[in-house]
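G., before I forget:
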Amino acid sequence: MPADDRTDVLVIGAGAAGAAVAWRLASAGIGVVCLEQGDWVDARAYPHWGVDWELHRQTDWCAQPNVRRLSQDYPVNDAASPIAPLMYNAVGGSTIHWSAHFPRFRPSDFRVRSLDGVADDWPIDYATLEPYFDLNDRMMGVAGVIGDPAYPPKSPRQTPPIPLDTLGATMVRGFERLGWHWWPSDSAILTRDYDGRRACNNCGPCDLGCPTGAKASTDVTYWPKALAAGARLLTRCRVREITLGPGALADGAIYYDREGRECRQKARAVVLAANGIGTPRLLLTSRSPRFPDGLANENGLVGRHLMFHPYALVRGLFDRPLGGHRGPIGCAIISQEFYETELSRGFVRGYSFQVSRGLSPIASAHGGLVGDRVPWGREHRRAYADRFDRTITVAIIGEDLPEAGNRVELDPALTDDSGIPAPRVTYTLSENSRRMLDHGIARAREALEAAGASGVAVNPLLRAGGWHLMGTARMGRDPASSVIDAEGRCHDVPNLYVVDGSTMVTCAGVNPTSTIQAVALYIADGIIRRRA
Amino acid sequence: MTRLAGHRDLLAQVLDTLVPPSGGFPGAAAVALDHVLTVAGGSAALEALLARGLQAIEDDARAAGGFGRVDTDGRERILQTVERSHPEFFEALVRHVYDGYYAHPTIVERLGLDPTPLHPRGHRLDVTEPPDLTRVAARGPLYRRA
């Protein structure tokens, strides 16, 4: 077994959080080695360079690893979940194919128990994270406009907001007629050249990667700076287990390199950044006499409290072309009119609306994420023409509350190509989430009709919507009810850190990446302080 | 592609029933047949599934002298029957037909879009001026202090 020299910190996973931590630590002079099971993605290999780009969305660029089935992926048994987990394994992780929505959590999102009597408070708050939000914004580059009354004042955005274009301007009319909140989305997509990266050319399908580099995947934001600061990044290295040394401290990891050789990386501290499914999976595969049920799992909470953001979709039909194929696919407008708790609505907590762009030709035929395929036969062309470029989809992204029964375990039979047990996901949509989505569907219909829609189609729960994987190694002060402490250290293994979506105590009603990265930077600064 | 080779003519007729020529747009047989055959050629399971489904269509049409001898109403009726009796086949067939049809540059251009690769050309937006946020901004803080 080839053994590398001991490093200060081993980071496992090179995605949104791992890249941020690696850069922060390396910039402070700390030795960093990062193991990533995927590889660098060559921007010249993105589908956008070919005329058949849209076909790749259902094959090698599908967001579902069970469909994509690339050699660097691992399967996920999601048969017991109505929501399929999505992820990407590469330098940059799932930021390679995210849509780059970049809202932050709001102050109340960290005080759910105190304010609303449900779930748990975070041991840290918005004010603690605010400087890290700002730092992360500068590193990623955010398009937006300040002054949104849904948030405390923010620092200036790095570039102007993504233009609304015809589709967005149409939807704004609906929100304005109703007097509801709306705002141009904070998006980690540059609308002007910034920090050596080029502005977006509005080509559209950000979910297939960004050949321009305008979208902030961490392979083009954090990683070049982390490597320049001295971090080492080893790709196609799949970690099998975290190893324990004297004193029940983590002392590194065993992994398989790109030739399939078993290797060992020694480290003084280990940082897990493998996403809300990969991280508990790895903790659970790391069994020892000291931790027979998985590393840092003395209380049995590793893998529990899995949260997705349940998505519902309402698509409005309009009587004129909207140019929906132009511009970043996911980002145009956010509305947080129904974000904070109002118990008269029949549920606790709340949700955001996201107004995304329109559907491309193939997606239009299949009904997009709503899934109502255009009928075949003699009526096909007319039905297709009525729909193509004449729809606006409003997504309802609801806050999912942590439930112990929603969890990630190891599958007893399924493995990846290296023989490492695959994760098995068990998830049930709560009644609170169901009522929240139903409320959102009714309000989205109202907004679309106010904008001029002549009819709507609804998907009450998006199956292929598990973009956000959270809560499975939750942060907390009490070792009996959490896996990591307020500084990201495992209660049971104090030199083992978790920095990805697993840390999240609650998941808010917005996309989590901005907050995941802010938390990761905050935890990195704790590592730096302790080392000093 | 060997299992589908004997069904090629039937497959073309089925494709043109699913997406017939209309309004200047070609039928699916003209632009999507190669895609369906290529995808099937890359998956033995899909090829077998399509072959079984096409055989079912052929069986249903036999009494009428074959699918090709049936009028449009009759073809649609046969496909509706097979859609119910072989849903997995039909789902896969329609999916790949739509994929091949709407990925084809001829169709993309007919839809009014530029059929060349998206990158590096990108798109020009129509509405680029900053939105008027006055009303929303004037609402004051909408978040709870915590």
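The longest helix of chain A spans residues 431-451. Chain A touches chain B through 72 residues (CB under 8 Å).

More on Monday.
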